[in-house]
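YM 10:42: NADP-dependent fatty aldehyde dehydrogenase sequence, as discussed on the call
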Amino acid sequence: MTDSTTTVSEVAARAAAAARPFAATSPADRGAALVAVADALDAHAGELITIAMRETGLTEARLTGELKRTSWQLRLFADTIVDGAYLDARIDDADAAYVIGPRPDVRRVLEPVGPVLNFAASNFPFAFSVAGGDSAAALAAGCPVVVKAHSGHPELSRRTAAIVAEALEGAGMPAGVFQLIEGQQNGVALLQDERIRAGAFTGSTHVGRMLADIAAARQRPIPFYGELGSVNPVYATYADAELLQGFVASVAGSAGQLCTKPGFLFVPDDADLSAVAPAAGGVAEHRLLNPGIGRAFEGRRSAVLGAEGATVLAEGEIREDESGQRHATPTVVAVGLDTLRAHREELLEESFGPLSVIVRYADAEELPAVHEELFPGNLTSTVHARADELADGSLDALVDALAATSGRVLFGGWPTGVAVTPAMQHGGPYPATTTDATSVGTAGIGRFLRGVAYQNAPQELLPAPLRDDNPWHVPQTRSAAGRSTEWGAFAR
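YM 10:58: structure's back
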């Protein structure tokens, strides 16, 4: 909680009280507040990274990069809202000669939905946690945020929240704009509170689906943006040593505890996979995030290794230390396509840790149907092919299948490492997410906005982005009177 005596209802009340004043802040003022948060996080980097290393077992280099990503993401969102295009301000001038019938003055803009509850992730203690992408997007949209801290890094969550709240207050933002709660019961209770207007989550399919169902079952259902994980299949028309080394590196990164880890690599039947073992053998052991994740990975690894027809290419190891933490090295197995289909229950579930499955196939023409059958919803899907294969049309059906079932389709490279950019899509059809939206990149702001139209409103009652004097200097799309007679001209 924000403190030991604050109740869930009091947290919701503070967020609700802050909603209208925060929504009324100008993009410039809100952008300056986001930059102040970014500056504060950077100023406390040494302290925060030290806590994160102790609580998560992630390396200093990984955490340093992740904190940099987190603070610069805030700065990117600041520039995005100051630009104002995200508001999608539209003005239709009154038009007595409108071809369908007289048109009133109608003006539409995107407005904040209200208080947002963000369930923080375990595997990204900065980028998808207290001050991560969901919190940044909601704050940028003008929504108060309550973060439900992850139990895997409680000390880091409390310290980060204190830094964020202090920076927002120092930048003049209303009290109650940013709060932290702890505990599963408190998270569920707040999700059910009518004053919460949207939810965001990054974590397991089981928990994410449970929370999504709670959000949908409320007397007043609310949008719930849950990222539930993905197996991120990769399809290769060849498998040389360089490709296999890149594959193992992607699987092993951060001990495989990434939602974009390639869980399956499809290669031709005759591929030489001898490069896998030495690549995996060169990876040092890495601690898993917490004992619960370690136990779950141990169980998944046993199931995959024990699947009938699986050939072990790199067995890997799991070591439990005196505190119950597991330390792992990469495990890679190979199966035929028929085996994958026959033993899908053992093999298809996501393995959250350094484990992946290589699948041999006989004919690339069957891959589109295989993908649609086995992988209906993915954060990413990847194609590795030679330039002539991409150009001759032989992979068009596969690419179409990947685009229909994935949020991001890659050509070459590996899906781990998600760039924070305006064009990024980090989402995908269910079961990758509960709602197919993006939780990375500036488009993520749109999850926490709703359209409102004002008809024949006097100028003094219009929101600033819709007024003729445009005090916020945001882009406005105007449909002037008399234009309707020109409809269809561009299509002729």
